[in-house]
Amino acid sequence: xxxxxxxxxxxxxxxxxxxxxxxxxxxxxxLVIESDNFNYMFNGVIYENGTCEVNIPxxxxxxxxxxxxxxxxxVIADDVYFEPWSSEFQVKASKKVxxxxxxxxxxxxxxxxxxxxxxxxxxxxxPIVENKKPVSTxxxxxxxxxxxxxxxx
Length: 153
Hints:
The chain is mainly beta. Helix content is 5%, strand content 35%. It has a domain at 3-92: Sandwich (Immunoglobulin-like).
């Protein structure tokens, strides 16, 4: 399991240290964060009861969310170097906001559909004319019309 460092809030590394052969007052502590591209070192404090605290600021300015690497605790007691703890780390954001854009809806304009019911065309039948005289198809005279339809009243 890797240690989590956060980009958007201060990080506080805390542990308990026991030192044999010397006093805690003569000891110093620091936390080293390292990766392929960078190394950062943060000094910490050891209290009389053995509690050790190292404050790490928000990492947004110097570590991005995808960074991974190794972090280790270094203790120097009476000029003797110790590395009592190490762990892999990964950088995350404590709060995230994801946006999912819904499909864009266009304004729906009303549509009008008009259907005209048309009566089928009626065929006009030609009247049957019994006329002994052939009617010219190009010209009709008044006399021809009277003979076809009769005299009007």
